[in-house]
Amino acid sequence: MNKVYEINLVKDELNLALNSWIEFIKNEKRVSPNTIDAYYRDIDAFINFLIDHIGGPLSIKNLENLVAADFRAFMAKKRRDGNCSKTIARVMSSIRSLFEYLDKIDILKNNALNHIRMPKLPQSIPKPLSLEQAKDVISNDNNKNPKSKAGWVEARNTSIFLLLYGCGLRVSEALELNINDAPMEDWQDTIRVRGKGNKYREIPILPDIKDGIKKYLDLYPKKYNLKDPLFIGVKGDRLSPRIVQIIMQKMRSNLSLPKNATPHSLRHSYATHLLQAGVDLRSIQELLGHASLSTTQMYTKVNQTELLDIHKKAHPRNKENHLRLVSDNS
């Protein structure tokens, strides 16, 4: 990777150290390009804050002399800018990664971060779609645009949503696929996907998903090579995740879907519906590419929440339900 930090008010030695850290997380931790971009944005925001906070130009010595109050001031600014606890916690994790790396290579030592209390994150439960809602999303009819003459766009959208729900892919995983990743042969019953940390996994793929991808490639709008992106935009470049989000927003309105209906909710739906069908957690962990089983276990809480809701509505001791049962039996 070429030098990515060339900020005028950052001294050369610090620019070099920052770029060395970027190279480390890219080559040693083998994180995805999207994760590297996120690290870069987080540290860039922190560096620019420090330039204003300290008065620049910024040096390694400045970083070494930071105290807990400086980090808290940065967190307070992020909060004033409207960032939620989850975002602030992620940014602080990036900063901690940088300081740990610079300590490891003996560039600087600063333990002030150890005295910072990180934002408390509420434990969130995934919000999947119902089976019927998921079917509506991947239906061909709902992906059609009556004003569009490009049938390949609708076929592309359908293929993407089929992969998100039918294989539990993250949006980034689906959009990083190239044409040679598509399971085009009759004997191919899995699809190989690169997940977080550049780790690959094989996922079973249903015939309907294969047929959808084949239909899309038959309509592919230009001559392609096998290493070209599988999913492209109207200008021929690799499709942006933002476009998929916009498509989902329109479908949410057209289909009267809940607010939690996002591209990522299809992955949650995949995992939840598998669990409800009796698939064991270890298998779901492998299919989703979770590094830890504890991450997959959150889907058991979805099941518990749904069961409690069903119990509350159906139990005869529920006052309203009891009155309804009495009325029905009279």
UniProtKB/TrEMBL annotation:
Main subcellular location: cytoplasm
Gene3D superfamilies: 1.10.150.130, Intergrase catalytic core
GO MF annotations, alphabetized: DNA binding; tyrosine-based site-specific recombinase activity
Active site feature: R170, K196, H264, R267, H290, Y299
Superkingdom of origin organism: Bacteria
Tyr recombinase domain: residues covered: 124-312
Compartments where found: Cytoplasm
Single biological process term from Gene Ontology: DNA transposition
Gene Ontology, cellular component aspect: cytoplasm
Keyword list, A-Z: Cell cycle, Cell division, Chromosome partition, Cytoplasm, DNA integration, DNA recombination, DNA-binding
Pfam families reported for this sequence: Phage_int_SAM_1, Phage_integrase
Coiled-coil spans in chain: none
Family matches, as HAMAP family: Recomb_XerC_XerD
PANTHER family: PHAGE INTEGRASE-RELATED (PTHR30349), TYROSINE RECOMBINASE XERD (PTHR30349:SF90)
Role of this protein: Site-specific tyrosine recombinase, which acts by catalyzing the cutting and rejoining of the recombining DNA molecules. The XerC-XerD complex is essential to convert dimers of the bacterial chromosome into monomers to permit their segregation at cell division. It also contributes to the segregational stability of plasmids.
Self-association state and partner proteins as the record states: Forms a cyclic heterotetrameric complex composed of two molecules of XerC and two molecules of XerD.
Similarity remark: Belongs to the 'phage' integrase family. XerC subfamily.
Protein's name according to its UniProt entry: Tyrosine recombinase XerC
Species: PS1 clade bacterium
